[in-house]
């Protein structure tokens, strides 16, 4: 059995962070996002290969994971010549599939029991099985209606508020039979949500829902990206680097923290980071690899990526700073600010 990770989107909602870092590898603490999904897929021994379906900045992703041996899996990269959409991308992989396939949106983080989903798919002899999860506002997702027997009866992508009929949405995790891919045209931009799933319903094929009520999030917006970090630090989602350290300050072994600095958990200080005398790393702060926090500076509720600089007496709160961002001395960076890679906030500036 193979798995396809759909990871070709441009990540527009996460700009400017995704201008030089495609969404599948934005760091969660210091780990590229896809590492979490690969960890989940690895738990299924039947999955012998993971296909990364890419088109936006594929080389950067390949550089991170190589053939997958470092993360303990066999990876294949398929790069579309132009974005083919979520169904077109699966079709593009068809020559490499001869068996049931697991498809995963490359931006969802969850603790789902994938083995149970596959078992349900087999038990029901389904043509397709989709994971659903309840959310408060389905408008940003694919709304999915089901009948009492757990069959999908309607799929409506990005419903308008007046079209909402239930709270279950597409969680972006599917198990599909390869013969159903014949209805997707080749080399054509085609949507799994708007065309493929509605066609399964129309033709009355066995299309089964697995409702999951555990942790699930799509990291595709800055708010959700920040939320994921907090969920891991606070233990709503159990994962590295907070395994066994929920609510605490996690300081990487090679970080150098001055003994007069104040580190308030939960927070994270990455490899090679430097925290100087009198600085304060407050709740929910994430200090990226090799980032320097100078004397008396304060970082609180903010995420800084690698190789950044927070100057003396500067304050960074509730913001996201891309790689190599530089905040000058006594500068203040406030809530909701997102600085792209190499941004410079000069001394005493306020944002
Ligand atoms: N290879 C490839 N090619 N991948 C793509 C393409 C493409 O042309 N377009 C999008 N993707 C990938 C994205 O990288 C992402 O991992 C996934 O497909 C879904 O695309 P998003 O752009 O993130 O869609 P969304 O979040 O608005 O909606 C989707 O996900 C929701 C759950 O998070 C839909 O599947 C909804 O129905 C669903 O509820
Ligand atoms: Mg998404």
Description:
The protein is α/β, with parallel strands linked by helices. 17% of the residues lie in helices and 29% in strands. The chain has a seven-stranded mixed beta sheet with strand order 5-4-1-6-11-8-12, sandwiched between helices. A six-stranded parallel beta sheet has the order 14-17-20-23-26-29. It starts with a strand and ends in a 6-residue tail after the last strand. Guanosine-5'-diphosphate-alpha-D-mannose binds at residues 6-9, 53-55, 80, 83-86, 89, 105-108, 141-142, 157, 169-170, 172, 193, 218, 220. Guanosine-5'-diphosphate-alpha-D-mannose is lined by residues 6-9, 53-55, 80, 83-86, 89, 105-108, 141-142, 157, 169-170, 172, 193, 218, 220.
Gyration radius, rounded: 22 Å
Q: Strand count, sense and closure of the main sheet?
A: 7 strands, mixed
Low-confidence stretches: none
Largest sheet strand order: 5-4-1-6-11-8-12
Q: Helix count, per DSSP?
A: 6
Structural class: alpha/beta
Mean pLDDT metric: 95
